[in-house]
Amino acid sequence: GKPSLILGIETSCDETSAAVIRDGHEVLSNIISSQVEIHQKFGGVVPEVASRRHVKNITFVMEEALEKAGVELDDLSAVAVTYGPGLVGALLVGVAAGKAVAYAKSIPLIGVHHIAGHIYANFLAGGMEPPLVALVVSGGHTELIYMAEHGKFQFLGRTRDDAAGEAYDKVARSMGLPYPGGPVIDKLAHEGNPNAILFPRAWLEEGSLDFSFSGLKSAVINALHNAEQRGEKLEPADVAAGFQESVVDVLVEKTVLAVRQTGVSNVVVAGGVAANRGLRTKLQERAAKEGFTAMCPPLSLCTDNAAMIAAAAYPFYEKGWFHNLDLNAHASLPL
Ligand code: KG4
Ligand code: ZN
């Protein structure tokens, strides 16, 4: 039949993004307007500022996505929008925009869970099929998820305190590095010695697939503080390398455990921290040894974007599972 064209919209945090994808996997456009420079001044995302920026940007970003794809509003088959979890004021902007398009053009509206979007970034890259285990690591999430089939998700474990990306951002801040801290620490870590300073790893109970990063975060902050009190300064690259080694160790070993527990042979990584070079390298090494396949999205699809949202909507589009125009935004939302 006719190819499907889905407009995706993502405004859950500090990126205003719109994308058009064809038949669930072909990215015709993926426009991302980042507010990162604005939030850098505050050392993190300020919700009220983010919402106002989304209002300012959303129509331009949607227009650009359509134009770049060479698609008219009338050509669209459906509109997909992130409706949670995230900053509720930020989400509302995208939800309102999505509803307006769906109503004006009488096309289906599909609300998408942000984490499902991150997982589906891997299907845009092509290749992998469920059953699989997804490691979702971002500024707000650290989760291991079992995906038996398309659109079906089951939590295996999650963080009990800080998310991995959050730990990166907080450690970076305590080292006087800019926001977002992940990419900066990742780069610095490659110039440092991971064994110079040993930081703790929180394995939790035997067999647990949960995570905890707040102890590690405090250990880094204490080490910096104690050195300062002694009138010394720790080598930033060594701090970054030691911290990263500890995060990556735990993420990779728990993923291996999840693979053993579920018996799957495919792993996908999702979320902003999936861009981490240390994580990508170590996971590939362990996967080769354990005999499973691990896949990370291309760097450009790791952080928040609308193409992944449109991709996650596609199985629902095919099944005819749509939302009504009373769709609301939710700060927290079960997967
Ligand atoms: O998925 P994302 O764009 O937004 C959320 O939904 O949270 O993830 C952003 C997070 C930030 O905490 C950022 O520091 C982290 O991903 N991040 C990284 C890297 N690139 C981004 N963390 C570690 N290494 C990286 N290379
Ligand atoms: Zn995200």
Can you give a write-up of this model?
- One of its GO terms (molecular function) is tRNA N(6)-L-threonylcarbamoyladenine synthase activity.
- It is found in: Cytoplasm.
- Pfam families: TsaD.
- Its EC number is 2.3.1.234.
- It is an enzyme of class 2 (transferase).
- With about 325 residues, the protein is of the alpha/beta class.
- The chain has 2 domains: about 5-120 and about 300-320, 2-Layer Sandwich (Nucleotidyltransferase, domain 5); about 130-295, 2-Layer Sandwich (Nucleotidyltransferase, domain 5), CATH 3.30.420.40.
- Helices cover about 45% and strands about 20% of the residues.
- It is built from 11 helices and 10 strands.
- It has helices spanning about 35-40, 45-70, 90-105, 115-125, 165-175, 180-190, 215-230, 235-260, 275-290, 300, 305-320, and strands at about 5-10, 15-20, 25-35, 80-85, 110-115, 130-135, 140-150, 150-160, 265-270, 295.
- The strands form 2 sheets. A 5-stranded mixed beta sheet has the order 3-2-1-4-5, sandwiched between helices. It has a 5-stranded mixed beta sheet with strand order 8-7-6-9-10, sandwiched between helices.
- Helix 2 (about 45-70) runs parallel beside helix 3, helix 5 packs parallel to helix 7 and helix 8 (about 235-260) runs parallel beside helix 9.
- The radius of gyration is 20 Å and the shape is globular.
- It starts with a strand and ends in a 16-residue tail after the last helix.
- The model has no long low-confidence stretch (mean pLDDT about 95).
- It binds 5'-O-[(R)-(carboxyoxy)(hydroxy)phosphoryl]adenosine and zinc ion (ZN).
- Zinc ion binds near residues 114, 118, 138, 271 and 304.
